[in-house]
Amino acid sequence: MLPDLRDLLATARVVDLPLSVPFRGITTREALLVEGPEGWSEFSPFVGYDDAEASRWLAGCIDFGWSAAPTPLRSTVRVNATVPAVDAREVEAVLARFPGTRTAKVKVAHAGSRLADDVARVAEVRRLLGPEGRIRIDANGAWNLDEAEHAVHEMAEFDLEYLEQPCPDAEELRELRRRIKYLGIGIAADEEIRKAADPVGVDLAGLADVVVLKAQPLGGIREGLRIAAAHGLPAVVSSALDTSVGLSMGAFLAAAVPELDYDCGLGTGALLAADVTDSPLLPVDGAVEVRRVEVSPALLDTHAASPERTAWWLARLERCHRVLAEV
User: Which residues are catalytic?
Assistant: First the structure.
């Protein structure tokens, strides 16, 4: 059931956390936290998302704060390092934030960057991880078909595990998968699922080898599990640059996936320069724990967003609650 808006507002706190490394053009991460009967939860859709999309994030927040998480099948989840679109000279410092990880997801196709920059970044990751390391790249749908095919051939020598959402269009993804299948590089669907009106019903036939699940954006842990079961493909559970509260939600989703063959993108707490808990969910020996986190009142105060930004988030919460109430 949808909790009363007053119950959400009663504990709502908005924070603005600095990042240690710029990520997709932002240097701080805003998030709204609420405390439900099951503990703290997070509502943090990116600022540019409209209320229809953001309301699904609120559903995920409510699911985690007001419903018991499924019994975990594992107590830890192996994670990948996440390398933003940094200069190749900065890669080593970024990877050092993810101790023990054997896999790296490298952001590519960033606005204003060149393919040569992406290749240099991936090459440096390969050098540092060694031949046994695993590399996946994420273009966030920024390439067209020909750009994606060209980029794949430029980077194929670095033994890529898969491409995450290289193109925005489903038919382009199908054609790209057909063209590069001989290289043994798979395609992972993220936005193709996450931004669909019906993530369960989206047609992934011939399009994807892996599904990317994000607990909050998909509407919660149970919805994520339902989507994974419907598509029947290997799953990777990733974050959306959450605080440790949101990462905890993702960890419980990953812990409930029956088969988890890929390292998950739940180590991004390492990219935050501050958090909302004294025990942040950070990679240790290449994995994160599956646990809820206790929020620190002092840290909520230290990193409180400005009154103007707090008002903006509370108004957004109210609008998205109204969207959910009308479903």
Answer: 107, 214
